[in-house]
UniProtKB/TrEMBL annotation, chain A:
PANTHER family: HIGH-AFFINITY BRANCHED-CHAIN AMINO ACID TRANSPORT PROTEIN BRAE, HIGH-AFFINITY BRANCHED-CHAIN AMINO ACID TRANSPORT SYSTEM PERMEASE. This is Unannotated protein. It comes from freshwater metagenome. GO terms for cellular component: plasma membrane. Its main location: membrane.
From TrEMBL, chain B:
The keyword Transmembrane helix does not apply. Keywords: Amino-acid transport, ATP-binding, Nucleotide-binding, Transport. This is Unannotated protein. InterPro entries: AAA+_ATPase, ABC_transporter-like_ATP-bd, ABC_transporter-like_CS, BCAA_Transport_ATP-bd_LivF, P-loop_NTPase. Residues 2-233 form the ABC transporter domain. CDD domains: ABC_TM1139_LivF_branched. Belongs to the ABC transporter superfamily. It holds the Pfam family ABC_tran. One of its GO terms (biological process) is L-amino acid transport. PROSITE patterns: ABC_TRANSPORTER_1, ABC_TRANSPORTER_2. The keyword Ribonucleoprotein does not apply. GO terms for molecular function: ATP binding; ATP hydrolysis activity; branched-chain amino acid transmembrane transporter activity.
UniProtKB/TrEMBL annotation, chain C:
It is found in: Cell membrane. The keyword Nucleus does not apply. PANTHER family: ABC TRANSPORTER PERMEASE PROTEIN, BRANCHED-CHAIN AMINO ACID TRANSPORT SYSTEM PERMEASE PROTEIN LIVH. It comes from freshwater metagenome. Keywords: Amino-acid transport, Cell membrane, Membrane, Transmembrane, Transmembrane helix, Transport. The chain crosses the membrane at residues 6-27, 60-82, 94-122, 142-166, 231-261, 267-288. Pfam families: BPD_transp_2. One of its GO terms (cellular component) is plasma membrane. This is Unannotated protein. The keyword Cytoplasm does not apply.
Length: 345, 233, 302
């Protein structure tokens, strides 16, 4: 069904979520909203890593730019909610474009370290300039849900609705972008820059574009995250957030958008599981340390044993049975690289 | 001794069931055009690449088992394609590298003297970085480094690549000297078929992964089919 | 007191710690082409082990070398069990380029959680073995104490020893050859995988020293979330990259440049800006001279 009627599938999924949201308690609804936020953040990273071969360990910084932009536009200009989100996207995209210009010249570990340094460095700006509200941060209030939704329509359900609507739109749009000319160029660039360049793809421009789009999506995730906690502050976008998103992307599988829910649900579920275990044994050390241990251990195990993610792993298994899932461009690029390497000698 | 050796890159067979043997103390040339499987053969014999099937032995030593460093310790040295020297190290350091694993420090020193005797140019430049050497000097250094391990079998991959004809001549003569005066067995892989066959005792012609012809080097040079296909006249 | 002298003294003490960290990063990078983002976590773990050793032996001068040996062993262990498996499994696809980065991040998380389990989340204190009160020149106290002087001399000594080992010994030759051209080194008969593990071990010892000296030279307190260790990671990385990520003298030079620039910012502008200045410095270097000050062009690849 997903293959034939993607739009219908997305709408159907949205409807299911709507039904679910009516049956959950407040905490679960809040967590559901967080899953949507993570899904957008992880999707933006998958776009970057899996489709353009660049890595960011500082995506939290881009989320922060989006969140602060949204909050500032709300506080100073009383912008309507939808406009704050648009502003968040634009602000983060501009930041991402600047970073992308530098990033296009860097490879693997250099880029990882640079983005990491940004994620650690950016919060100090919030402390330096009073407009950002320092350590306490700024209040970000999107207002009460419309009265027309009824009396028992809670604030968190409102957040849930907004987050999921945005998430579904974003994922649907991303899916289409990936299957477009841009998506194919990005995959070509990821597989082999030189061959892609020879095939007439402007590698640098494509990398910057991928970074910009990824940043824009991170921006909206940042605004949504701020919305669910009604606050922007350095503490809302800690370094751990950047690491979590990278973790989520790897758990989901960086080569395909299909697994994005796996990572986002895992990120929200693990602290819950850890809490359940901790309650059973009643120890505070377990509560504080187990989530980190589980996430990190899962991360290492994934990289070691399912490096391309669970979804890709299934695809690979099916491909072995005869259903090849390779797209044409990748084959051409591989052949291209082979000729190249012989020539280089 | 090579029997039915097959090596694949993924689904492509780079070498398909080839067999030949090389007598001790002789110089064998493996010739063939680009893509014939020559480099793959060398990389397999030195342990850099795994074979799919077949056997390859040198004396009692199984060449298809173990890592390159293991082979070196058993008297098989490989000079890989493209002047395999380390540019960031000095000439002398590159040479010492070949003997690092040896316990007999004094003998290693006399081996170095032998190398300097063979290639006096290297002695003049012993403290220079390998980066500053000319193409021919680098090839000498690469061969010298392999010789530092005191090999019984020396595998040379395209030593003539990118060198001027005069320099090629000189390198080939040095290889002949290594065989004749030091008793080393050499397998020389070359695209420069004529030059290689002229110095070699024995020749193997590879074409698209299979042996197209083999025999005494002088016979191969005389063979009209080989001349037409590989020697270019 | 003379402000310029103060900048210099603060800069040079900071640089001494950064260079230890940068040296670890360079060693690991050279031996396995991996930037070890868990390096700071390993340094933190070593600081805790140092704390245990100091409280058990009661002697800092025994604890420091012991902790360095344990740090080396731990680092070698990681290379042997984690990195080798990783290179075997994740060498293809989009993940290949980032798998080592992700794995070291995961390792960082595991180390932090483990520290939390063992030592809990409140501060531990390592007593400084030497006075941290600045020397007096006439009436003025300068920004250099016996403790920070020791750190400086220790680092200089370590750098000299490492340089001699690398340039003058056979092991050093094997380490350099394996770093520059692993395949050629292998063909020359060197057991490259063992040499890699050794590279990680030396890096572990250097990182352990960084962790402990950073702690005693600073407030003396360590906690799993300690900011100083995020700082150590980022500044070590930046120093290594400024120097070119390939070269040991480069790592020291990078650390000195970074230490000095940050000291100027701290004294003349504002202490809260050091992170962002460090980031801008990194970006500038990467854009203007991507191979670093002492790196070669070839080093940038991979």
């Amino acid at each position: 069904m997903l293959k034939k009627h993607p739009l219908l599938t997305f709408i159907f999924f949205g409807f299911i979520l709507f039904l679910i949201s009516n049956r959950l308690d407040e905490l679960r609804v809040y967590q559901g909203a967080t899953v949507a936020v993570y899904a957008i953040g992880i999707a933006s990273l998958i776009l970057l890593i899996g489709y353009s071969g660049q890595i960011s360990l500082g995506h939290g910084a881009l989320l922060a730019i989006g969140g602060y932009a949204a909050a500032l536009s709300r506080i100073h200009y009383e912008a309507p909610i939808w406009l704050t989100f648009v502003i968040a996207v634009l602000a983060a995209a501009i930041g991402g474009a600047l970073l992308g210009l530098a990033a296009a010249r860097l490879s693997g570990p250099y880029l990882a370290g640079t983005t990491l340094a940004l994620a650690i460095g950016l919060p100090s700006i919030a402390n330096q300039f009073s407009i950002f509200g320092g350590e306490q941060g700024l209040y970000f209030d999107i207002g009460l849900p419309p009265a027309s939704l009824g009396e028992d329509f809670t604030q968190y359900k409102w957040y849930f609705w907004i987050s999921w609507s945005v998430a579904l739109i974003v994922l649907y749009w991303l899916r289409n972008v990936m299957n477009s000319r841009y998506g194919r160029s990005w995959r070509a660039v990821r597989s082999n820059d030189v061959a892609a360049e020879l095939a007439g793809i402007h590698v640098g421009r494509n990398k910057v574009l991928a970074f910009t789009i990824s940043a824009g999506l991170a921006g909206i995730a940042g605004a949504l995250l701020a919305m669910t906690v009604s606050l922007v502050s350095p503490g809302v976008y800690p370094l751990v957030l950047s690491f979590s998103l990278a973790t989520g992307a790897v758990l989901s599988g960086v080569t395909t958008l299909g697994g994005v829910m796996i990572g986002s649900v895992t990120l929200v579920a693990i602290p819950e599981i850890a809490l359940a275990i901790a309650n059973r044994y009643g120890s505070e050390t377990i509560t504080t340390n187990l989530p980190g241990l589980l996430v990190s251990a899962l991360l290492i195990l994934t990289v070691l044993f399912v490096p391309n993610g669970p979804v890709e792993q299934l695809h690979a298994k099916r491909a072995k049975k005869g259903h090849s899932s390779h797209s044409l461009i990748e084959v051409t690029v591989r052949v291209g690289s082979k000729t190249l390497s012989t020539k280089k000698k | 001794m090579i029997e039915d050796l097959t090596v694949s890159h993924g689904a492509i067979k780079a070498i398909d069931a080839i067999s030949f043997s090389v007598a001790k103390g002789t110089l064998a040339a493996v010739i063939g055009s680009n893509g014939a499987g020559k480099t793959t053969l060398m990389r397999t014999l030195s342990g850099l690449k795994d074979a799919s099937s077949g056997r390859a032995t040198w004396m009692d030593h199984n060449l298809l088992h173990g890592k390159p460093e293991h082979h070196v310790r058993n008297g098989v040295s490989h000079v890989s394609e493209g002047k395999s020297v380390i540019a960031q190290l000095t000439v002398e350091e590159n040479l010492d590298l070949g003997a690092l694993w040896r316990r007999d420090r004094n003998e290693a020193k006399s081996t170095k003297d032998e190398v300097f005797q063979l290639f006096p140019r290297l002695e003049e430049r012993r403290t220079q970085l390998a980066d500053t050497l000319s193409g021919g000097e680098r090839q000498m250094l690469a061969i010298g480094r392999a010789y530092m391990s005191r090999p019984q079998l020396l595998l040379l991959d395209e030593p003539s690549l990118g060198l001027a004809p005069l320099v090629v001549e000189q390198i080939f003569q040095s290889i002949r000297t290594i065989v004749d005066t030091m008793g080393v067995t050499v397998v020389l892989v070359e695209q420069n078929a004529m030059g290689a066959l002229k110095v070699a005792d024995y020749g193997v012609v590879l074409n698209l992964g299979v042996v197209a012809a083999r025999g005494k080097a002088s016979d191969l040079i005389a063979d009209p089919a080989v001349r037409a296909a590989y020697l270019g006249y | 007191m003379n402000k310029l002298l103060e900048v210099f003294l603060i800069g040079i003490s900071a640089a001494s710690i950064y260079s230890l960290m940068a040296i670890s990063m360079v060693l690991v990078w050279r031996s396995t082409r991996v930037v070890n983002f868990a390096q700071a976590g390993m340094a933190l773990l070593s600081a805790y082990i140092g704390y245990e050793l100091v409280s058990r032996t009661g002697n800092f001068w025994i604890a420091l070398p012991l902790a360095m040996i344990l740090g080396a062993a731990f680092s070698a262990f990681i290379e042997f069990f984690l990195m080798r498996t990783l290179l075997k499994h994740s060498s293809q696809g989009a993940i290949a380029a980032i798998a080592p980065i992700i794995a070291t991040l995961g390792l960082l998380g595991v180390i932090r959680a483990t520290i939390g389990f063992i030592w809990g989340h409140y501060d531990r204190q390592i007593e400084a073995p030497l006075s941290k009160v600045g020397f007096k020149i006439g009436e003025n106290t300068i920004a250099m104490s016996p403790m920070s002087l020791f750190v400086l001399l220790f680092v200089i000594g370590l750098v000299i020893i490492v340089t001699i080992v690398f340039q003058k010994t056979n092991i050093g030759l094997a380490l350099r050859a394996s770093a520059y051209a692993p395949e050629i080194a292998q063909l020359a008969g060197i057991r490259v995988s063992g040499i890699r593990t050794l590279g990680w071990a030396i890096a572990g010892a250097s990182g352990a020293a960084a962790g402990i000296l950073q702690t005693v030279n600073g407030t003396g307190a360590i906690s799993p979330e300690s900011l100083e260790f995020s700082l150590l990671l980022v500044f070590g990385f930046i120093a290594a990259v400024i120097g070119g990520l390939e070269s040991l003298p480069g790592a020291v030079l990078g650390a000195i440049i970074l230490g000095m620039v940050l000291a100027v910012v701290q004294i003349y502008i504002s202490g809260t800006l050091v992170f962002i200045v460090a980031f801008l410095l990194l970006l500038t270097v990467l854009i203007l001279r991507p191979q670093g000050f002492l790196g070669t062009k070839a080093g940038r690849r991979a």
